[in-house]
Each structure stands twice: as structure tokens, then as C-alpha cells.
Amino acid sequence: MGSSQPPPVFTKSRITLILSVLLLVSGGLLVNSTATRFESYSIMSHWPATTGIITISEVVGERAFRPNVVYTYEVDGVVHLDSTDLNMPSFGGRNNRREAADTMAAMYPVGSAVTIHYNPENPSEAKMKVSPPWSVYGQLSFGITLILGGILAGLVSVRLKANRILHK
Length: 168
What we know:
Helix content: 40-55%
Shape: elongated
Mean pLDDT: 88
Order of helices and strands: HEEEHEEH
Low-confidence stretches: none
Number of helices: 3
Strand content: 25-35%
Number of strands: 5
Structural class: alpha+beta
Number of domains: 2
Strand order of the largest sheet: 3-2-1-4-5
Oligomer: single chain
Radius of gyration: 26 Å
Distance between the termini: 20 Å
């Protein structure tokens, strides 16, 4: 009498299937949150616009340089003050970041007029740039990559399971 052992609980196909599900879920959540960010930028692009004046245009930071552009704008007789880092990415070599920040700040000299989009429900909330920053596109790309990885892992799991069944 031969003793038969139960099949292992965690086979390669099951582990791959679990990986597939994790990748699909995390990718889906990431794509969903990115879609929400895209939607908010879409809403901002339809906010009313007014003219703002640059009051400060400088580069700040010790190691992670970024532009700091301060502007004023008026809505219904009330003057508002806001600032932006122009959505500058914070990666790259130190000298490259400094050079990029200098270039971006120089594009907005003090006293120059710029278009400001403000929230009609809360005019103190404003944006000088209403297009999504690079990080939103990176997040979307990463989410799609996770989903594609999940699909691939699912296909591998099915293939492993089929091979195991055929070779019994």
C-alpha cells in the first residue's frame, strides 16, 4: 500500500495567481486614484481666469532646488496671494535641478502678468498651472504596468496549472 500525500497548498500556479490578483488590485487602485487626480485638473481648467502679477520669483532649497513663484490676483475686489513651485519634478542630479529651477523661475520675472485660474466657490484657491504635473502621468503609467503584469501573471498561472494537470 502506497501512501499518497496531499498536493501542496502553495503550488507555483497558486502563488502566481495570488501575485496576479495583487498586481491587478494594486494597479486598479492606482489607476482609479490617478483618474480622480486627472478629473480634479480637468475641473480646474474650467475655473474662471483672471490676471495675476508675479511678486517674487526665486529658487529655494538647499539640496532639492525648486522655483518659488509668488503672485497676487484680484477677485471681486479682494486681493489674494498664492505661490507655486510650477510642478517642478524633484529628481535628477543636484546641478540639473538647480539649472532647471533657475530656468523656470526666470520665465516668470517679478512684475510680469500671468493667467490665474481660481475656484469660483473659494477664490483664495488658485492655480497658475492647471495641467497635470508629470507625476500624474508617471502614476498612471505605473498603474497600467501593474495591471499588465497582473494579466501576464494570471496567464502564467493558468499555463502552470494546465501543465500540472496534463503531467499527472
